[in-house]
Amino acid sequence: VVIPGAKQKQISAVATVPGAASVSVTADHAVILLFVSQTVVVGQDAPTSTASNVRVTLDKRDGRWLISRFDPV
After folding, report:
1. Residues β-bridged to residue 24
2. Which residues of 45-66 are buried (b: 16+ CB within 10 A; e: fewer)?
3. Given this model, what pLDDT does residue 8 score?
4. Percent of the chain scored above 90 by pLDDT?
5. Could you give the CA distance from residue 37 to residue 10 in angstroms, rounded to a whole number?
6. CA 9 to CA 56: how far, in whole Å?
7. Alpha-carbon Rg of the chain, whole angstroms?
8. Are the beta carbons of 52 and 18 closer than 8 angstroms?
9. Kind and range of the H or E run holding 33
10. Above 90 in pLDDT, residue 1?
């Protein structure tokens, strides 16, 4: 549903992370705060920019860091 609708309406989005900060870190668990900038373009309309913050929880499993929570703040 999302992909066909985005193609039909020519929606594109780009997100960047201009900053990040650690909240807590252990050998196999981390909580970080990401500062996210996103630009969305719909068809020929002018780009719309937004900024948001996300608290991301990561757990280390089999040597890989995996996201276990993703919470907008």
Report:
1. 31
2. eeeeeeeeebebbbeeeeeeee
3. 92
4. 95
5. 20
6. 31
7. 16
8. no
9. strand 29-42
10. no
Q: Six-digit token pair at 22?
A: 């650690």
Q: Which residues are within 8 A (CB) of 57 and not within 5 positions of it... i.e. 6 or more apart?
A: 29, 30, 31, 67, 68, 69, 70, 71
Q: Where are the beta strands (DSSP E) in the chain?
A: 11-25, 29-42, 48-61, 64-72
Closest CA to 68 of 54, 56, 53: 56
- What is the rounded average pLDDT of the residues 2-13? 91
pLDDT attached to residue 2:
84
Tell me: the pLDDT tens digits for 35-70? 999 999 999 999 999 999 999 999 999 999 999 999
Which amino acid does the sequence have at 20? A
